[in-house]
Write a structure and sequence with these properties.
The protein is of the alpha/beta class. The protein contains eleven helices and eight strands. The protein has an eight-stranded mixed β-sheet, sandwiched between helices. Helix 10 links the parallel strand 7 and strand 8. The chain is globular.
Amino acid sequence: MKLVVALLIMTSTMLTTQAQTATGKYAPINGLNMYYEIHGKGFPLVLIHGGGSTIGTTWGRILPLLVKTHQVIAVEMQAHGHTADIDRPLSFTQDADDIAALLRHLKIDKADIFGFSNGASTTLEMAIRHPQMVHKIIVASTMYNKAGAQSWFFPMMAKASFEEMPQPFKDAYLVIHPGDQKGLRAMYDRDVARMQNFPEIKDEDIRSIKVPTLIISGNNDVNTLEHALEMIRKIEKAQLAVFPGGHGDYLGEITTLKPGIQPALPALPVVETFLADH
């Protein structure tokens, strides 16, 4: 069974990575040679992947459906996927500034932003730091302070080891960068360090978010449902959607795939309804 799962995940990773290589572009952004893809037509929708991830590992199952109704701009952040690392710290605020700079580079004045996990932290910072560029935001599986995490999460991060990094994330990185174990380990270490020193967002900054906001969570996610409820009470135009399952099940995130079963993607109709009014 483990071999079947590994083959399924590896095949999915390789297919999505090959698609990226064929369609992606690079832009000079704040010192980065930043990788991005544009698919479809319509109002712009930026997709920001989770920690340790790529466009394919986070969005590979849902992206082909989103492009039917949106101009999807999928990005890979510093040290992730095709975007090489540079000599500066990783931070959610810097990531938000990089997204804003990419939109300016593409001459896009305003966009919807959809972030998963670490990408959702970046999305919150985008709405706080660059509100004039944001139409709506979707933040999936995230928290804005440490109290919002499950009691086991930060103790687990304190003891995190490279050996425990999900194999699909390792595979996806090494398909893009064959043999680059050093780069893979550097990405992992940087992501872990960022979470071990998790930068909390102030309550007043969360309350400053005025754009329509959809908060998504699994009922067995890394964030608590109480925290998700707290967020919708503090963000003026927030809605909450909770789905059965854990971290990314509702999106078909690659580590949630099961052999022989197509992901149900229950978040898709909720996301489409939320984004429909432009």
